[in-house]
Design goal:
- The chain has 18 helices and no strands.
- Helix 1 runs parallel beside helix 4, helix 1 packs antiparallel against helix 5 and helix 11 packs antiparallel against helix 12.
- It has one domain: Up-down Bundle (Growth Hormone, Chain: A).
- With 397 residues, it is mostly helical.
Length: 397
């Protein structure tokens, strides 16, 4: 039975690569958007907010309706939206009178697809029969987001080099092939329901649990800590550290994604032997240090090391919180995963949003001021984990 679900797991891995494309291809083009369409950094920040803001709405709606619609129909719809959004990103800004509106429309379709993928892929893997520990399997699953991020940066950098930046619009259309292929896989693979309807915890019961709101807050901090650096790493390397486009992408977001993937692969392999809470506390402290390194170092290479270490530090935050949730509330079902995805996307919008807002109001310091402000998110995560360590110690083992 486990072998029958092998391709289900592979389709989920590819689903996270699709989400990595959606979230990380546009940031590679932010400087191009600024120059070609005369868009301010504030409007660039709004694109990020639209992406994760729409994902938040999708997460909320998915919590109510996905179980009724079914996993298969929902995940296929997610990939159709992803294909539409990526093709739209390449075409709409060039044919519409207001290019910025074209970008907003494309980002909206991408966000719908990404939001549904985030809600659905984790419970599909959680429900599939597996010989691996679920915490390790979840961390391995989330590592494919990182390898997708690396793939997007490296292949797009090669593409920009071969095609020329003036032909950037071809790349999103090429990337749309990935979600198109995954539509076929999800049409064929077996999919189990995480929790049968009669066993699901009522929404009201879940929302009254104090522990659920702790997990919700941890997910907000995880999303903000990750995307606060990830969404701005390319622009920070190019504009703030005066690196070329190619070097900025490879040493900024690519280095970040490689180390984030390594962190998740490490926990995927050795997770059964590691105290999850201590690992997450240590990661939060390292995250604060990495933001400080990026902000305070005048030497560009040391600052870029801060970007990379941030990826290493945030790697466990998102899958680790999901794993805690599965232990604490095994009957939470799709509702719980959807609400936690909503929390994560709130953080994904809040982190880059804070960076953008602070950078706009402190132009003398630019992105460094914004990244300094984002330190509050990993700091709050460490505080919450330390405050709750005694009461809930058994759940972190």
């Amino acid at each position: 039975m486990k072998e029958k679900y092998t391709y289900t797991i592979y389709a989920c891995y590819l689903g996270y690569i699709v989400q990595a494309i959606i979230n990380n291809l546009p940031p590679l083009l932010f400087l191009t958007f600024q120059q070609e369409f005369q868009i301010s950094i504030e409007k660039i920040g709004l694109l990020i907010t639209v992406n994760f803001g729409v994902q938040i709405v999708v997460d909320f709606l998915a919590a109510r309706y996905v179980d009724r619609i079914g996993y298969r129909t929902s995940v296929i719809a997610a990939h159709i939206c992803s294909v539409s959004g990526l093709i739209g990103l390449g075409i709409l800004p060039g044919i519409m009178e207001h290019s910025y509106v074209g970008l907003i429309i494309a980002m909206t379709f991408n966000a719908i697809g990404g939001g549904l993928i985030e809600v659905l892929v984790s419970p599909i893997v959680e429900a599939a029969p597996s010989s691996k520990a679920k915490e390790a399997a979840m961390s391995l699953l989330h590592s494919f987001y990182c390898w997708g991020h690396v793939l997007v940066v490296v292949m797009s950098t090669v593409g920009f080099r071969l095609l020329g930046m003036e032909n950037w619009y071809i790349l999103p259309i090429i990337w749309s092939i990935v979600p198109f292929v995954n539509i076929y896989l999800f049409l064929k693979v077996p999919i189990r329901t995480l929790v049968e309807e009669e066993e699901r915890m009522p929404a009201g019961h879940l929302l009254r649990m104090r522990m659920f709101w702790l997990l919700f807050a941890l997910m907000v901090c995880a999303g903000a800590s990750e995307q606060g650096m990830s969404q701005w790493a390319s622009l920070f390397a190019e504009e703030g550290l005066k690196q070329s486009k190619m070097m900025g992408d490879l040493l900024g977001p690519c280095f970040f994604a490689v180390l984030m993937g390594c962190s998740r692969m490490f926990y995927g392999k050795f997770g059964e032997r590691i105290d999850l809470r201590k690992f997450m506390v240590g990661s939060g402290i390292l995250c604060v240090a990495s933001y400080l390194l990026a902000v305070l170092m005048k030497n560009p290479m040391f600052a870029l090391c801060g970007c990379g270490l941030c990826g290493l530090s945030v790697g466990i935050m998102w899958p680790g919180t999901f794993s805690m949730s599965a232990k604490l509330c095994p009957q939470g079902g799709t509702m719980m995963f959807a609400l936690l995805a909503l929390a994560g996307d709130l953080g994904c919008a809040a982190g880059p949003g804070v960076v953008s807002l602070v950078s706009e109001h402190l132009p003398a310091y630019g992105l460094k001021a914004g990244l300094a402000a984002a330190i509050v998110f990993p700091g709050v995560m460490v505080f919450l984990l330390l405050c709750n360590r005694r009461k809930n110690e058994k759940y972190y083992q």
